[in-house]
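Give me structure tokens for this 261-residue protein.
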Amino acid sequence: MRLHIFAMLMIWGGYLSAQTSANHALAAEAELITLADLQLGSEWIQHRVVVPEAELSCFQRPGEGATLLLIPGTFSDSRIFALTVRHLNPKLNLIIIENRGLGGSWPPPEKSSIERCAEDALAVMDALKVDLFYASGHSLGGMIALELGQREPDRVQGIVSIEGWTTASAAALAFQGDMKSTLSPAQLDILAAYRKDVLRRWSDEQIKMFGSIWRQWDGSAFLDATTLPILELYGMHRAIHLLNVFQADGGPCVRYQSDRG
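Here you go.
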């Protein structure tokens, strides 16, 4: 257990340190990025995996170290991690999966769930012949990562959930409907352009269905019972929200705070 926790800290520690020392520079960079900047480098290899009713796309940056699976959030593809992966240890074997209908995965699902997304992720890892791995994701991706730990506790060595809610009620209590007020107008513009690009081939019915699956999942029982090391990261701009998150999700926690508060 201690070995796994140390490994998780090694995986993310460098990224957190880089973020702390370069927060203001990264904030300035975020003001200047365009959709063209959200691209993975030439070192990434795309794989395609056929599953029932779809073909899944994933990208791999091969490395000799531990395998880290990254799962994008709702209505996001591999590009959402383009800036983040530049700060991760180059020895990591990184894999980014794209959920159905997003990026190179097609078509969009008519029906979906976090459980089905986890099944797809496992199909990709099986196809790539990856046995042991760390699972990480943002938002919906963080919830999928937790579901992977619940399904395959002997394969998943640890979980890094970035604002991956245990339940929909936890998100409501933490942010009280306010998840975007810290974004600048420029950041909101790039987010809107990105979302429009990602969903350009989706129907309104598909968007409504997939956008609601996170509300139907509850990982509370898993978090209460698991012995897997889990690191949950949240970006908050109000102290009361931080308190609410830990009250809502429960369990012991260690607070990490950057120099931006």
